[in-house]
Amino acid sequence: MPKKIYKVAIIEDEKDLAEIYHMKMKMDKMEATVINDSLQAMETLRKIKPDLVLLDVMMPELDGFELYQQIKADKELKKIKVYLWSNLTQKKDKERAEKLKVDGYLVKSDFTPTTLAMKARDILDGKVSKKDK
């Protein structure tokens, strides 16, 4: 049985890094869209209606925490799974994510493009429990 083709939005200001993840998601039969500008993200998300958003925390203009709140406040987008991903590993950043009740918080340095694509598929296939996030 063929894998379901999921839509994944990668919101990341580092274009080279985003492109590597984008290519890997496509190789794993996911429809991936890269959004490099946090100010354009909401408009693009409304157009593509992804199943999952991988949202960088550290971005110019609008950080991932602020953008997460906008996504979850939007009636069209609020049900989309949004995972913050960052190299911020300080307790205060994880606590802020917990306070916002993010769907998940991934540390970038823990993932290769291959393992991130696998994690994305597991999330979308419902194979990730609350404690695994």
Description:
The protein has 133 residues and is an alpha/beta fold. It has a single domain, classed as 3-Layer(aba) Sandwich (Rossmann fold). It has five helices and five strands. A five-stranded parallel β-sheet has the order 2-1-3-4-5, with helices on both faces. Helix 1 packs across helix 5. The two termini are 27 Å apart. The model has no long low-confidence stretch (mean pLDDT 90).
Give the CA-based shape: globular
Low-confidence stretches: none
Oligomer: single chain
Mean pLDDT over the full residue set? 90
Q: Distance between termini?
A: 27 Å
Strand content: 15-25%
How does the helix and strand content classify structurally? alpha/beta
Order of helices and strands: EHEHEHEHEH
Task: Summarize the model shown.
The protein has five helices and five strands.
Q: In terms of topology, how is this protein built?
A:
Blueprint: E1 7-11, H1 15-27, E2 31-35, H2 41-48, E3 52-56, H3 64-73, E4 81-86, H4 91-99, E5 104-107, H5 113-124
Parallel strand pairs: 1-2, 1-3, 3-4, 4-5
Helix pairs in contact: 1-5
Main attributes of the structure:
five-stranded parallel sheet, alpha/beta, single chain, 133 residues, Rossmann fold
